[in-house]
Each structure stands twice: as C-alpha cells, then as structure tokens.
Write a structure and sequence with these properties.
6-stranded mixed β-sheet
Length: 132
Amino acid sequence: MKFIVGGAFQGKTEFAVKNFGISEAEITDVGKCSVNQFSEFTNVKNYHIFIRTLMDMKIDPIEFTNVICEKKSDMVIIMNEVGCGIIPMDEKERKWREICGKCGCIIAENSEIVVRVICGIGTVIKGDNACL
C-alpha cells in the first residue's frame, strides 16, 4: 500500500501519477461514490471525505479502514491532512477530524511508503526513497 497525505490542492494526485506509474483515470474520487462501490477501486483519492460518508451511514470508519488495509495491500490512498488549523466548535466536525487522524495512522502503519506532499513536492516520511 502507498499513502499520500497533505493539504488540499497541494498536488497529491499529480504526485501519485508521476511517481507511482498510474494514470489519473486509475484513481477514483471516493468522495463521490457509495460505500458499496469501494471494493471495485484500485487507487483512491479524497479518503477523508469518504470517512465522512461512512460516519453519516453509521459505519465505523476505523473498522472499515482496517479491512481495506487487509484486503487492498496494493492500493494507493490519497487523503487530505485535516488535523491542522483551528479546532472546530461543532462536535461532529471535531469527531470527523479525530477519526480522519486515526484512519490515517492505520493506513500509514500498513503502507510500505508514506509521502507528505506540499506544493507538489513529496517528502517520504516512511519507506525507501527508491520507491519514487
């Protein structure tokens, strides 16, 4: 598994295409899909939005993420880093951020390479730079 994380609009998808030998067409925006479709996908972006979908459907995102990590070990997952900045006053928003962080930790733990992308530049925070 490969995990790319970073702020919104920082070039994460472009980084994946350039460095992991996949096309943009092979990366599905799971922020716009149903839970039932997820097993069909090879590579995904906007996993942080998908976590909100899971929460809205009363599906445990942590459990779901653990299952994905077991079953999809060759997947590229792209997710926004949502834990920085001002803490929201809304309890649901705080809970979503917390769960995004926990799911990110699970994905990172199960990934052979983790890259943080800022301004289109990737910094490997886990794994071998030779993977790029």
